Amino acid sequence: MRRFVRARRALSVVAVAAVLGLTAACANPFTLKVPGSGSGPESGPVTDGVPDELLPFYDQQLAWEDCDEPMTSEAVECASVTAPLDWHQPGAGEIQLRISRPADVPAGAQGSLLINPGGPGGSGIDYLHSVIENDAIGERLLEAYSVVGFDPRGVARSTPVECLDAEGMDAYLYDTSDAERGTDEWEAELDERAKTFADACAENSGELLEFITTEQSARDMDLLRGVLGDDRLTYLGYSYGTFLGATYANIFPERVDRFVLDGALDPSVSGSDVGMTQVIAFEQSLHTYLETCLGGSSCPFRGSVDQALDDVSSLLASLDARPLVSSDGRELGGDTMMTAIVAAMYNEANWPYLSEAFSGARSGDPTAAMFLADFYNDRTPNGYGSNSTEAFNAYNCMDYPSESEEMTEEDEQILEREAPVTWQYMLGADVCEFWPHPPSGEREAISADGADPIVVIGTTGDPATPFAWAEALADQLSSGTLITFEGEGHTAYGAGSDCVDDAVEDYLIDGTVPDDGLTCQPG
User: Fold this and answer.
1) Do residues 334 and 466 share a domain?
2) What would the pLDDT profile of 414-454 be if each residue is shown by its tens digit?
3) What's the structural domain count of the chain?
4) Which of 268, 296, 359, 441 is most exposed, with the fewest beta carbons within 10 Å of its own?
5) Is the same domain home to 264 and 356?
6) C-alpha span between 393 and 389 (Å, rounded)
7) Are residues 260 and 353 in the same domain?
8) Helix or strand run (H / E) with residue 321
9) What angle, rounded to 10 degrees, do the helices at 334-344 and 166-174 form?
10) In which domain, by residue range, is 171 found?
11) Count of H helices and E strands in the chain?
12) Is position 152 within any domain?
């Protein structure tokens, strides 16, 4: 019986654009300095209201230094913060959190602005470097705040989740099967691959795995607020980062200052519902891509959208039967081709790369498709650039309660009707079935009663975090206010809408709350 896998990793759209050589839109420079609630980036730690047993953590002094790490430059500096392994037993062990900020903090900055690019498993340090290098965050924010990126616990330069080596990751992510898709033999192969991955995580990460949860990470964020010298937290979170931000707001509503949650997750949705919703949303985005593609002169498909969808299905089936071999010996099968499709769906500007991938695969050349899949998996010619896949699985396996994830006949009928191309390539074995620790998270509505206004942004054509989730989160939050971006791709701030960018920056910088229900278009 088919099972739902956990949600597709939700990447930051700016990171996608940067790697593909594209530049996201940025706002015009503006140098407004408004006193905020923070004490400023050069002040000492804020420890008001901190329990005695946590004071040694909150009373740390930051030592900023050259990062001397991959994906960073002289424009960024870094520091380390010690956090409890388990916030509920602060004496049971410690981990390290790595953070970064622009080397030239603006004089008179009104405090810190913490950012998270999503995932779970995305590196805030890499993201900050990327947006600075590619002008993908408004100059107004960089001039008003000390913008701080951080690698959440388990991620990248913070104490990391460790699982397989590069060869093992290649096998886990790219290996093809000789068994027919959907058969017991095929499922057994996927189960064995998932178990190998989970066992490696248990062996190489040890006790850390039990505490890679969004609730623990939200408490880490409050520690960062304190050591950065801010009385309250100002935050910009994308995708999964919206769930992280909403979780923080629910735990510490009185410490919420100005929050923007872009590309929202619905915290009340179960893992199986997330999987099913995403499958359908990616199918819809593929349909939209094909409509646009067929209207141009360089589309690899001909005829109607339905005929093009049939051609995509035929291509996926042919890659299952006869995978294409890339220059390094890895194979492009149907699953990896679907990963390439998914990667391109995060940003409409990436669709030409998808057309190239389709053209290449149909003519026997896997190069462009492997490039997109490698981007999604953060694979480089020298191995893997981060542990994003490991951290993604670690967070999801602990955050989502166990449930029966076997598909019903009704589920299959819905997916066959709503997602006939994508559904069979986005379902399979669930690593979490073999995870060494039972999940500790809950899926429930978050209200964050008592928090200051929280701005939630949803994009109508977002396949990774569908618009309905943004509507749901804004409705759940007692102080939620919704911005609708009528566009394609994942997340909206910096994606080419002055309306969205101005609303976000006006709120974060001077506290002007946008009208609930504000609707924005590209341009």
Assistant:
1) no
2) 999 999 999 999 877 789 999 999 999 999 999 999 999 99
3) 2
4) 296
5) no
6) 6
7) no
8) helix 305-321
9) 90
10) 166-207+271-434
11) 17, 14
12) yes
